[in-house]
Design a protein that fits this description.
This protein has 169 residues and is mostly helical. It is built from six helices and no strands. It is globular, with a radius of gyration of 18 Å.
Length: 169
């Protein structure tokens, strides 16, 4: 449980790093910021490897091994995808962010913060009174993100964005 919480902590760190990089966006600072983000992602990978190594050696686990491995993989995917956002901003040579980006950042940071709260309670999942509510809130935030994504894509096609801008975003 502690190791899963640590993995979620890296996802939350990556989300906060992404927010700080893009809230005060400066394309010239992206290479250094990518290095900082990669350090978070690499640390998360090492922690994930440590969890898997420990999982292989444990005789009795608090929940099914497959469930632990699946959770760890999904959490690692979150961290990887957050890093990928910054990588794409760099690779596509984005010089100016679209207005929707701030809303996406808020949702991403809030979701990872809620995941941290879920993991803080996860060890007592059978008796927890708040895990279910936090998961429902995460699902609500995901729906908000889906709506925001639909509107952001629609705005690209209804507000005269260039073909290059459509490809990038």
């Amino acid at each position: 449980f502690v190791m899963l919480r640590e993995l979620v902590g890296y996802s939350a760190d990556a989300a906060r790093k992404l927010e700080s990089c893009l809230k005060e966006f400066d394309p010239a600072r992206l290479p250094a910021q990518l290095d900082e983000m990669h350090e978070i992602e690499h640390s998360a990978d090492l922690a994930n490897h440590g969890l898997i190594d420990k999982l292989v050696k444990e005789f009795i686990t608090p929940i099914e091994r497959e469930d632990i491995a699946s959770l760890a993989a999904q959490i690692d995917n979150i961290t990887d995808e957050i890093e990928d956002v910054l990588l794409r901003v760099y690779m596509f040579n984005v010089q100016q962010l679209r207005p929707e980006m701030a809303q996406f950042l808020t949702l991403i940071v809030r979701c990872t913060a809620l995941l941290e709260e879920v993991m803080d309670e996860f060890e007592n999942f059978r008796r927890s009174h708040t895990i279910k509510e936090k998961i429902i809130e995460i699902n609500d935030l995901e729906e908000q993100g889906d709506r925001l994504y639909r509107e952001a894509i629609r705005n690209l096609y209804t507000n005269g964005a260039s073909a290059e801008e459509k490809l990038v975003w």
